[in-house]
Amino acid sequence: MTAARALVHKVILAAALIAALSLAGCGAASTGSHTSTTGSQTTGTASRAVTGATSQARPQVIEPTAGQQALAVSAGDPVGDVHAHAPSLADVKRQLRLELIAAPVTNATYIDPLRYVTRWERTDQGVDAQMPVGAPILAPSAVKVLAIIPNWYAGQPLVYFELLNGPDAGRVQYVAEQITGIAPGGTILAQGQAIARFAASGTGIEYGWSTLNGVTLARATSGYGEGQVTPAGRSIRAWLNALGANAGSG
Fold first, then answer.
1. What strands, in cross-sheet order, belong to the sheet with 127-130?
2. Are 172 and 163 within 8 A, CB to CB?
3. pTM of the model
4. What is the C-alpha separation between 64 and 101, in angstroms, rounded?
5. What is the rounded distance in angstroms from the CA atom of residue 200 to the CA atom of residue 21?
6. What is the pLDDT of residues 45-103, one digit of tens each?
7. Are 110 and 148 in contact (CB under 8 A)?
8. For residues 224, 228, 234 and 240, what is the CA-based torsion angle, rounded to 10 degrees?
9. Cβ atoms 104, 147 nearer than 8 A
């Protein structure tokens, strides 16, 4: 009997030990779970804090800074005038007709363009003169008419043209004021053809040197005041006299 009681006692002790170990394991699991729960709560609190901070944001007005770089333009944004269009072929051809010609200097001679003058007048930007009504102003050589300025002086026009050969090839001259029947811009005239004709009324004609854009050489170089004798005016009078114009000294 004593041996049997001892065996029962050992069994009870073993069961108690197993129960104790089981409780210890449950406690550890419970503690881990609690830690995990606590971590979850902490994470939730942080998330609520971030969400709260975002909900309190307000729109801000940002003033531009002088010299600030402009925003980049994307490939899809329109650039320039969306209604712009290329010029017509006719417009391009018209503009090309008015371009200067690369005229080489030659030994060709000139003729007096003002051979029908009846009275020479003053020297100013060019040379002033009177002619019979309808008399032509002649091309001194082959010339290219560059353009016409319709209202140059007192409602009267100016036409300027390029000399295409001779010692002054490439230089530009003009005739202005009391003229009509003017050859259109872009026209190439042979020597002796009419650039324009003397009109029935006006302030006489003026013949002189021009710049490439129709401004008289006198204005572009020395400047000009009404009636002022200019170096450009003296030069064209000498040029005409060299052709036998008998324009005097003015």
1. 119-123, 127-130, 205-210, 172-177, 156-163, 143-153, 188-189
2. yes
3. 0.65
4. 52
5. 135
6. 444 444 444 556 676 666 667 766 666 666 666 666 777 788 888 888 777 777 888 89
7. no
8. 90
9. no
